[in-house]
């Protein structure tokens, strides 16, 4: 695994790269990518950071781990490459976006356009083995992404953190809620959404309302 991460994040996270857990993680990921099909592609593992510099982060959306189907994951949580059918969670995200903001349901499932506006689309685990959800959990990625959230919480102000589902909500303990806005809801997966825990959360409009209030540019969802 090559750590092809933007300079703005390298400065912030350089201490993590020297830690024992991260060295073990790199070794594990390299072995997995050599012996199995894994996602996303090696050069997309740190895509969330390369699309959205540390300085530009205004919103953080937390996912769990990448899509494990062929050609889906592109290094941004909940996002797929252009032309790939939308997975059920992304369908529900777009449905809520349409209901909340009136935006037409997007044809393209690549969320890079959000990342380029300052939305950090961060999975708690950045890699996964093909067809095996959660297969790279508890190998060190969680320590790394905890550090990302802690640095953002400590060094910045006025970030909107969107925590969707129980796994993301656990990360809320790393966030200083006096300095930042934390919005929580159920996960957009059908299991949660169909039980009434997702639709109607209005997170997209609430995010923009907060950004307006603190003098930041709104996200063009």
From TrEMBL:
Residue span, Uracil-DNA glycosylase-like domain: 50-211
Origin: domain of life: Bacteria
Subcellular location: Cytoplasm
UniProt keyword list: Cytoplasm, DNA damage, DNA repair, Glycosidase, Hydrolase
CDD domains, sorted: UDG-F1-like
Active site, per annotation: 65 (proton acceptor)
Catalytic class of the enzyme: hydrolase
Family indicated by similarity: Belongs to the uracil-DNA glycosylase (UDG) superfamily. UNG family.
Protein's recorded name: Uracil-DNA glycosylase
Species annotation: Lutimonas vermicola
């Amino acid at each position: 695994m090559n750590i092809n991460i933007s300079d703005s994040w390298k400065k912030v996270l350089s201490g993590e790269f020297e830690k024992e857990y991260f060295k073990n993680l790199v070794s594990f990921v390299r072995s997995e990518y050599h012996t199995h099909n894994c996602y996303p592609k090696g050069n997309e593992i740190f895509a969330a950071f390369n699309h959205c510099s540390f300085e530009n982060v205004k919103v953080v959306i937390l996912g769990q781990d990448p899509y494990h189907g062929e050609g889906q994951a592109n290094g941004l949580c909940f996002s797929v490459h252009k032309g790939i059918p939308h997975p059920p969670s992304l369908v529900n995200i777009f449905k809520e976006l349409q209901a909340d903001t009136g935006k037409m349901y997007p044809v393209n499932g690549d969320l890079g356009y959000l990342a380029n506006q300052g939305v950090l689309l961060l999975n708690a685990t950045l890699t996964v083995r093909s067809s095996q959800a959660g297969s790279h959990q508890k190998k060190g990625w969680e320590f790394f992404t905890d550090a990302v959230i802690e640095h953002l919480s400590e060094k910045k102000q006025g970030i909107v953190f969107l925590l969707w589902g129980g796994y993301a909500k656990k990360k809320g303990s790393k966030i200083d809620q006096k300095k930042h806005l934390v919005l929580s809801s159920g996960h957009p997966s059908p299991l949660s959404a169909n039980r009434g825990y997702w639709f109607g959360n209005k997170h997209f409009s609430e995010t923009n309302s907060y950004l307006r209030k603190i003098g930041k540019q709104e996200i063009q969802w």
